[in-house]
Design a protein that fits this description.
This protein is α/β, with parallel strands linked by helices and 213 residues long. 40% of the residues lie in helices and 22% in strands.
Length: 213
């Protein structure tokens, strides 16, 4: 769920501008899951563009506080949200930690890197939500460490039904700066995509796991 429609469309515009999101309905991408997709998102590119990076950092910091209040700690999900989460924490003057997909196999075998006290309130930062599985895996690790999770804020979500179901099951609030619906709206209004491409993008969204070009 997005908090502000104008921010959602502006974020979508910027992600398209720097090719953090690419739309290629006529030449689909192959995801690691095996899905064919007319869209590909890599929000780590944001870190290479200072003006856009600052926009996203400030919007996320503002929304964290508006949605969840000021937490004790900001947590980033490795690897995509480590840089962004650190920027948000720095802007808010808060401690930062990050969560690996699984504990390290050597050393102290940490899954959570940084200092976290039991019962500290935490807001989790993500770069992208697809099914939500990896994001919720990080949340589970934080809860096991005694964190009080206030919610999650991500840059973008594909708005898959499976993600909504997964977050509802965990009773975890999720908000994003932008989402698939606002992205397609922005791309259509600005002429970034043509009418036939819009049709393909909308068809994919109905059943992405089974979609074929």
């Amino acid at each position: 769920m997005v908090l502000d429609k104008n921010t959602a469309k502006k974020t979508a515009e910027l992600l398209l501008q720097i090719n953090a999101i690419k739309l290629k309905p006529e030449n689909p991408f192959s995801w690691a899951s095996g899905w064919k997709s007319p869209i590909y998102c890599d929000n780590r590119i944001i870190l290479s563009y200072p003006v856009i990076r600052n926009f996203v950092r400030e919007e996320m910091a503002k929304q964290v506080e508006a949605l969840y209040g000021k937490p004790d700690v900001i947590a980033g999900v490795a690897t995509g949200a480590i840089g962004l989460g650190a920027l948000v924490a720095d802007y808010m003057g808060l401690p930062f930690i990050y969560v690996r997909p699984e504990p390290k196999s050597h050393g102290r075998q940490n899954q959570i890197e940084g200092y976290l006290e039991t019962n500290q309130s935490v807001v989790v930062i993500e770069d992208l939500i697809s099914t939500g599985k990896s994001s919720l895996n990080a949340v589970n690790a934080l809860k096991e460490a005694g964190a009080n999770i206030k919610g999650m804020l991500a840059i973008f979500t594909y708005e898959f039904d499976v993600a909504a179901t997964n977050f509802e099951k965990k009773e975890l609030p999720l908000h994003t700066l932008s989402d698939y619906g606002h992205l397609i709206e922005q791309a259509s209004e600005t002429g970034y995509i043509k009418e036939d491409q819009l049709k393909t993008l909308m068809e994919w969204r109905k059943n992405p796991s089974q979609w074929q070009q």
